[in-house]
Amino acid sequence: MSHARLSRWLLAIPMSLLALATLYPLLFTVNVAMKTRRDYVLDRFSLTDALRWENISTAWGSVGLGRYFANSLVAVTSSVLLLLLLGSMAGFALSQLRFRGSSALFVACLAGLFVPFQVIMVPLARIMADSRLIDTYPGLILVYVAQFLPFTVFLMTSYYKTIPGEIVDAARIDGNSVYGVYRRIMLPLGTPALLSVGILDALFCWNDVLMSLVMMPSADHRTLMVGVTALKGQYADDIPTFASGVLIAAVPVLVAYLFLQRQIADGVAAGATKG
């Protein structure tokens, strides 16, 4: 066996084991979701003998995950659109416009990346309660934007720094205002970064539990992840239904990773680029 082939095998074996370890929980969840409660109690590790969709329909309809799915869709879509708008505008200003204090402002945005939500959770909840924004979509959207805006600004600033400043100067000479440069030049050029950052922000918001649990305490306004977490207590004796809920919550994320993995990788690498 040649040295090159041996090296490939030495790399393929641990990667295959890692892939198997990653896929096993998903396959186990699918298998459990297809079982009846009796089959699961008798043998939880055996393969199901048929595809039963009753548990998924029960979790979607009777349990209410369909309503929670809609709640998450509204909150995540609105938050991501607002994040992309504010992040792209701030990234353009911090990377291409020359004004006093821009470097300090960028450092302040970076400092927001190091503040976990748990640190500000109690005072934020009090402020939102005083503002009557608890248990409202605007309140949850504002919290998502505040939490993930520093990350969005950082990546968009890093990307816009790779665009030559001469393009902006030429657009200004042609008579464009600052807003015109942003709308006609920077937004089209920043489309790849906006797509990547938007996907990452959507995944962050979709997978969130703590922020939505604090901001949306009522059952009617729960997001999908909070609803799935609540299933663990309500359906502790009905594991197939709980597994169905986990599967419903995981499918959008899996679809995003399968079809948008290139954009996700580009978004992760965008912060490493520097113009």
Automatic annotation (TrEMBL):
Superkingdom of this protein's organism: Bacteria
InterPro entries for the chain: MetI-like, MetI-like_sf
Gene Ontology biological-process annotations: transmembrane transport
Membrane spanning residue stretches: 9-34, 68-92, 104-125, 137-156, 193-219, 239-260
Membrane topology according to the record: Multi-pass membrane protein
Keyword Transport applies: yes
GO cellular component: plasma membrane
Keywords, in A-Z order: Cell membrane, Membrane, Sugar transport, Transmembrane, Transmembrane helix, Transport
Keyword Transmembrane appears in the UniProt entry: yes
Subcellular location: Cell membrane
Segments forming domain ABC transmembrane type-1: 69-260
Gene3D superfamilies cross-referenced by the UniProt entry: MetI-like (1.10.3720.10)
Pfam entry (one): BPD_transp_1
Family classification: Belongs to the binding-protein-dependent transport system permease family.
PANTHER family given in the database record: ABC TRANSPORTER PERMEASE PROTEIN MG189-RELATED (PTHR43744:SF12), ABC TRANSPORTER PERMEASE PROTEIN MG189-RELATED-RELATED (PTHR43744)
The protein's name: Multiple sugar transport system permease protein
Lineage: Bacteria, Bacillati, Actinomycetota, Actinomycetes, Micromonosporales
